[in-house]
Structure formats: structure tokens, C-alpha cells
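Review this fold:
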Amino acid sequence: MLRTRWDPFEDLRSAQDERNQDQMNRLLAHALGLHGQWQGTATDGSPAWAPALDISERKDAYLVTVELPGVRMDDLTITLEDGLLTIQGERQVANDSSDQRFHRVERRYGAFRRAITLPAHVQADAVEAWFEDGVLQVLVPKAEEAKPKRIQVRPGSQRDAIEATPPTS
């Protein structure tokens, strides 16, 4: 029979290591100019979190998919202003009971904010969003000028085209 020795201070050392890692992450994020784009501790010392997201591009639109488990739809706000798509909200503590003692809390709670800079050519008035099973999807249609266009190739040279163009006065 294999015996392992229980160390009652293991979790305390682990928590200290996590705090040290959070401090290193915050310093690195600051040095790289990634303010507010990593998951760690907020500047005021309270836990902060940023939901994971994917951004994909189709011919006609951009699709932003955000994982928001435990967030209620009523706690979400989505705005698009000057090419900046902002998704913000709050995840409430699931069970804040005074008769319950937590031994470990790894999930993040509280307010979050993600801001994504989109290309200039989008249809801001046609943005749509869906929220189902803790996943938010935001569809941002491209403007007509941003969609790929096929260029017709003509026979001849550039010189022929320039010579055929009438001078402007």
C-alpha cells in the first residue's frame, strides 16, 4: 500500500505561488502594453477576469464568439462606437450562502470588459447578437466597400490605358 503524507500547508503555498504568478503576469502585460487584456488581478487588488473569445472572418462579416458561462443575458451590454466593439457585463457569485465555507475558489466573478478594434468598414447599424447556453455570438457585417471585389483583367498594357484616358482640365 502506497502512503502519501498530507501537508496542510500545501494549498497555502500553492495560493502564494499563484499570487506571485499574477504579479509577474501583470508586470509583463504592462511592459507589453496589454493593459486589461489578460486574466489576473485588477489594479485595485480585487479579482478580475476576461472571458475567452474568438474572432473569425467570413466574406460578408466578422463573427465574435465569447464564452460567458454563468452570466445572465440581462447582465450584458454590447456597444459599437467608432470601430470599437465593447462587450461588458458581470458574473455574479453563484451561491453566496453564509452557511457555506469555501476551501478553494478558482472561478472568477465580478465585472468584465472586453474591447475589440474592428476594421473601419463595417455596418454598425446591422450588428446582431445571440446568447445561448453561456455563449455570446456577435455578427458584425462588412460594409460593401470592404467586401472582396473581382478585378477584370483587360488585354493590353498600362501605357495603352493611360493614352486612352482623356486629359482632365
Notes: Residues 11 and 102 are 13 Å apart (CA to CA). Confidence is low (pLDDT under 50) at residues 35-47. The longest strand covers residues 84-91.
